[in-house]
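If your schedule permits, I should be very grateful for your opinion on a structural question. I have a record of one protein: its chain in single-letter code and its fold written as discrete structure tokens. Kindly check, if you would, that the fold set down in the tokens agrees with what the sequence suggests. I remain grateful for any guidance, and I place the record below:

***
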Amino acid sequence: MESASDPALSGPDRGEPVSRRLQDLALTALGVLAAVLVFLALRGADPLPPGDGAASVGTPVASGATTGEDGEDGEDGGGAGDEGADTDAASGTQAAADGESSGEQSPLEVARAVLQSGTPVTVSALGDSTSNTRQEWVHLWAQELAADRPVSISHWDEGAQDGFVQPDVLSATGSGSPVTIWSGSQGGASAAYPVERLGTIIPESPDLVLLNFGHNHTPQNARSDFQSLLAAIRDAHGDVPVVVCLQQPQAGDANAEVRELIDDWATAEGLATIDIAGAFLAQGELDDLLEDPVHPNQAGSELWAETVTVALSP
């Protein structure tokens, strides 16, 4: 007798082994678990700070590159860096300029300060026949000073050549401090003349020395004679301020070469100069200021004195 089939064992679902279904369930559970773990891992990760991602994956910023205020770099950032460098350079230039403006006085400013010191001043003026009379510039300049202060001037005794004549008291009163001028000028003298008689021609320690030579020099002896005189003054009176007059042009400006040599020498020695020649040449007609080919006339002497007054006034 043929036995009937068991429905529980003959259907398609009923025919799969139990172990296969358990495997499927296990794989599904593992997939869900993996998804949950990934989700939790992503939630627990720290977010990147703003901008870090761009810095890490974008174009690297070179070491030392400058960025602008808004964080931009490249051409604009480089411009900002250049501007900073220019500012530093400008600051350095300004600092140098400030250092110059606040540094030591110029030689001419030192000479001016002597005359404005508020204490008695002794001036030694050494020169030649363009400054040896009462009609010439040293005496005329002394008269200008006497307008507001006590001034006396003594002229070198050109005959005896061993001292000074009695002083001319140009003013005994005034609000300014007293000035004593020793005008040691000798006709025909060069800068070598005072050296051999320095203790006589500069009878007391001066606060200011004016040198007025050149007409009796040649290009061959000008520098050496001036150097010898300056050395003698320095030996006797230390660092007294010395001012050099660049003498007026002779007819045809025949003394131009000597004058330029003296100017160069004075500049190299750090001495103040007063450009008398420039004042004469600026007038246009040189003959109107000369008495002869070498000496100034009265108008020339007055121009000379005025030029010195302006140069030595504050």
Notes: Confidence is low (pLDDT under 50) at residues 1-18, 45-102. Residues 107-311 form a domain with the Rossmann fold fold (CATH 3.40.50.1110). The longest helix spans residues 18-44. The CA atoms of residues 223 and 264 lie 9 Å apart.
